[in-house]
Amino acid sequence: MSDTTTERATAQVEPREQAERAGQADQQNPGKRKLMLTLLAAAVVASSVAYGAYYFTVGRFHQSTDDAYVSGNLVQLTPQVTGTVVAVNADDTQIVKQGDPVVTLDGADAKVALLSAEATLGRTVRQVSGMYVNNDFYAANIAQRESDLARANDDLKRREAVASTGAVSGEDIAHARDSVSSAEAALEAARQQAEANHALTDRTTIAEHPDVQAAASKLRDAYLSYARNTLPAPVTGYVAQRSVQVGQRVAPGTPLMAIVPLDGVWVDANFKEGQLRHMRIGQPVTLTADVYGSSVKYHGKVVGFSAGTGAAFDVLPAQNATGNWIKVVQRLPVRVQLDQHELEAHPLRIGLSMQVDVNTQDESGTQLAAATNTSYRTDVFAQYGAAADAEIAQIIAQNTPLGRSAAVGAPQKTVSRRDAERNAG
């Protein structure tokens, strides 16, 4: 019991002795402590001055965020006709060139319809050509009827001239008059037939005749249905989200895969409301990607601001007119265009994280973009229409009578892409 009491007393004495020794040491070195405090205060003041100078000269002109991601176009490849997939020529991660055949559908039924439309157009051209030939036939018929009428008139005049001598009977004169009337009626009928035929052919050509145009429209529709069994790549890019399989029955509008043109990506940086006060279109931007690290820097510029925050465009936007309201700082997407050369040297993928720093010193720009038309287009499908027109011109030229193509303005003979492929095969 006495030993325990002694230990407690010793433990209480030791801290008191240590404090006394420290106090004696401080009393022995008052100058050293004062120097240390002075140096600490000087360091704090110097740091504050340096930060203040940096902020007022550089820092206040920069707004940064790590809530930024790479975005780009996802070009969907969808069929325009119903069919069964017989070939898929690209897979995920592979690159395809604009116009390359990516997916092929079974075109047997469409080919049958195309051949039928070709035959119909050829038959229509020959029938219409016959109308133009009939113009010459009816002109010759009119000339013949005019000759018959002139002969009948001459016969009537000769008979009437000798009627007083009794050389001809009254009956012969009556028959002559009937012959004249019959010839006049035949001539009028011939003229009516010619006018009716001219009504079908005047002010038009074989190629522009309504019957030929109607047949050509059906051929064009059949040709497009046949050509659309081959799905070309609308743009050059990398294949992603491929879902189509060989043997699959697809309908128009079914997404088969996406093609991503990585040479046209951009960055959507989500800045807080307070950071947008001095931000303008055209301001320079410095970016780094997590995938490459801080050693690789991208340079770009602000090209636009979103028309609303992400919360405003939700499927079910927040309704703040409720009793339980809590203010949440909103973020607005800011689009940043990247330097194309830097993007080629260090390509990015959609969805990658970025660090974005915007220099807001130059406020001469605007916050609302000017009215410009930024369009994305492809001409791979326009080739189908050009090939269909070439096919129509070829069939018209082949079925137009020789010597009448130039006379009626029919197109000269051309070879369509479909025939070239068929001959090559």
TrEMBL record:
Gene3D superfamilies: 2.40.30.170, 2.40.50.100, Helix hairpin bin. It is found in: Cell inner membrane. It is a single-pass membrane protein. InterPro entries: EmrA/FarA_HH, MFP. Residues 416-425 have a biased composition (Basic and acidic residues). The chain crosses the membrane at residues 35-56. Residues 1-29, 403-425 are annotated as: Disordered. Pfam families: HH_EMRA. Belongs to the membrane fusion protein (MFP) (TC 8.A.1) family. This is Membrane fusion protein, multidrug efflux system. It comes from Paraburkholderia phenazinium.
